[in-house]
Design brief:
Mean pLDDT: 92
CATH topology of the largest domain: Arc Repressor Mutant, subunit A
CATH superfamily of the largest domain: Winged helix-like DNA-binding domain superfamily/Winged helix DNA-binding domain
Strand order of the largest sheet: 1-2
Order of helices and strands: HHHHEEHH
Low-confidence stretches: none
Radius of gyration: 18 Å
CATH architecture of the largest domain: Orthogonal Bundle
Largest sheet: 2 strands, antiparallel
Number of strands: 2
Length: 161
């Protein structure tokens, strides 16, 4: 296996292990919610004026799939829909009090996971971080170009800046 394949397999292995380790705690704390619902709650809680289109784009899902998720979250009392006075056509979403509680639980769990993994990240030098981040940026740019070839506009999430 060449080094590029080793890196890809390494990313996959790291991702799968993170999911495995986090899954049980997430399911225990947020057992009433599916993963897709929690991700919607997270996105709505962290962004203003969320609508079906923004959610669909951010998760690379269809608007129909997002509509189903948001309807379930409305029925559970987690999110509410609203319209702006100047735009009666578009429907936006925000968290309810109950939704904010779920959002905070999710954020607390992510903080626990960061604390769990802190020891390994403390060993990484700034130079090593710079090299890794440079690679991640290049890879994301490449993937964005491939997404464009599929006729989809990739998201500009700036998660690493």
């Amino acid at each position: 296996m060449n080094k590029a394949d080793q890196v890809i397999m390494g990313f996959r292995n790291v991702y799968n292990k993170i999911v495995f380790l986090n899954k049980f705690k997430m399911e225990e704390e947020l057992k009433e919610y599916k993963s897709s619902e929690v991700h919607c709650i997270e996105y709505i809680g962290g962004n203003e004026d969320c609508n079906v289109t923004k959610l669909a784009e951010s998760f690379y899902m269809t608007r129909g799939a997002i509509s189903k998720i948001t309807k379930k979250l409305i029925a559970k009392g987690i999110i509410k829909s609203y319209q702006k006075p100047e735009n009666k056509k578009e429907i936006f979403f925000s968290l309810t009090g109950k939704g904010t509680e779920v959002y905070k639980i999710h954020e607390k769990l992510h903080q626990e996971f960061r604390e769990r993994d802190k020891a390994i990240f403390e060993q990484v030098t700034d130079e090593q971080y710079d090299i890794m981040l440079d690679f991640v940026h290049k890879y994301i740019s490449h993937l964005d170009e491939e997404i464009k070839k599929q006729g989809v506009e990739p998201l500009n999430l700036n998660e690493f800046e």
